[in-house]
Amino acid sequence: MSQSPKVIVVTGASQGIGAETVKAFRKLGHNVVATSRSIKPSDDPNLVTVAGDIADPATARRVIDTAVARFGRVDTLVNNAGIFVAKPFTQYTAEDYATITGINLAGFFHITQLAIAEMEKHERGHVVSITTTLVDHAIDGVPSVLASLTKGGLAAATRSLAIEYAKRGIRANAVSPGIIKSPMHAPETHAALGALHPVGHMGEMSDIVNAIVYLDSAPFVTGEILHVDGGQSAGH
């Protein structure tokens, strides 16, 4: 168990990277509040789940209020919830735009604002967000304008938050993944997707979780966009 348990909030926590992040922080002995639309109740007294749409401000309020009521504070927020829709730019619909910006941007904004307000009370905290390496390195054949528009916004906001709160004990960082083996990608696509990386294969969910855990344990690191992308952002 960790010497000093933290209170960690994880969004998009019912499957994939989010679920693995919850497991990793619990293994380290931290208390976790996990949220997603479909998350199930928890039998673990140190893991509380809150079901809801992260794009809804009311969900953000319930998550943060639950963390404070159950564990007394919020130490770390992991903004993992996100959606990626690969379509040619002119084929995105108004519904696509509303859904993607709702989850990727509003979902970040509302809960981060509330979490930082709690962190300020204790003069310490950390926000780590998940972006995408497509922000820095677009790939021919992988249409990603709305991903870049929204996740690129998170990368820029991460740097701004880091500077705004640097002297208040609150850090902000991001992890920028390549294409990761997760429930999002069918096994038959793995070879083709792996070939899009200079290292020749996809990443594992553990690669991203390890990066999140590292950033959370690195008090001198803030404003960092940590690329975990098999070399994609470096070039071809």
TrEMBL record:
An example Gene Ontology molecular-function term: oxidoreductase activity
Pfam families xrefs: adh_short_C2
Residue ranges that the Swiss-Prot or TrEMBL entry lists as coiled coil: none
UniProt KW Transcription keyword: no
Record key words, sorted: Oxidoreductase
PANTHER family per the UniProt record, alphabetical: OXIDOREDUCTASE, SHORT-CHAIN DEHYDROGENASE/REDUCTASE FAMILY (AFU_ORTHOLOGUE AFUA_5G02870), SHORT-CHAIN DEHYDROGENASE_REDUCTASE FAMILY PROTEIN
Family (UniProt): Belongs to the short-chain dehydrogenases/reductases (SDR) family.
Protein name: NAD(P)-dependent dehydrogenase (Short-subunit alcohol dehydrogenase family)
Species: Paraburkholderia atlantica
UniProt lineage: Bacteria, Pseudomonadati, Pseudomonadota, Betaproteobacteria, Burkholderiales
